[in-house]
């Protein structure tokens, strides 16, 4: 079975689990909720409502589990690696000959 690896927003430890994240899933190290804004790839402090997904509902408690349909786990050991790789791939595709 495939697994994803990510860094917990709370304890900063690497967690490995199934890619199907449920609303009640918790970090195996500290018990923090996984399906929350701080672990989502769309979370951005500089964005409106701190979310890059413009259609998402406002979530007040960013560290607690929520029902957001747009949640996508911020995979990678440092959390930002996926976003950086996505941006590099998009730039390369744009300028590809």
Structural description of this entry:
This protein has 97 residues and is largely without helices or strands. The protein has one helix at residues 81-94; strands spanning 4-7, 14-17. A two-stranded antiparallel sheet has the order 1-2. A hairpin with a 6-residue loop joins strand 1 (4-7) and strand 2.
In brief, what are we looking at here?
With 97 residues, this protein is low in regular secondary structure.
Strand content: 5-15%
Our measurement of the CA-to-CA distance between the termini, rounded to an integer number of angstroms, reads: 37 Å
Order of helices and strands: EEH
Q: State the strand order across the main sheet.
A: 1-2
Q: How confident is the prediction overall: mean pLDDT?
A: 87
Helical stretch tally: 1
Structural class: little secondary structure
Would you report the number of β strands?
2
Secondary structure: helix percent: 10-25%
Global geometry: globular
* Gyration radius over CA: 14 Å
Return residue spans where pLDDT drops below 50 for at least 5 consecutive residues: none
Give the biggest beta sheet. Answer: 2 strands, antiparallel
């Amino acid at each position: 079975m495939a697994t994803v690896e990510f860094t917990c927003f709370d304890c900063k430890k690497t967690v490995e689990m199934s890619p199907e994240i449920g609303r009640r899933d918790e970090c195996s190290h500290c018990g923090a909720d996984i399906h929350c804004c701080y672990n989502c790839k769309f979370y951005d402090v500089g964005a409106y409502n701190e979310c890059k997904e413009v259609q998402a509902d406002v979530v007040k408690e960013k560290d607690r589990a929520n029902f957001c349909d747009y949640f996508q786990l911020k995979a990678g050991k440092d959390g930002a690696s996926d976003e950086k790789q996505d941006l590099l791939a998009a730039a390369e595709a744009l300028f590809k000959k």
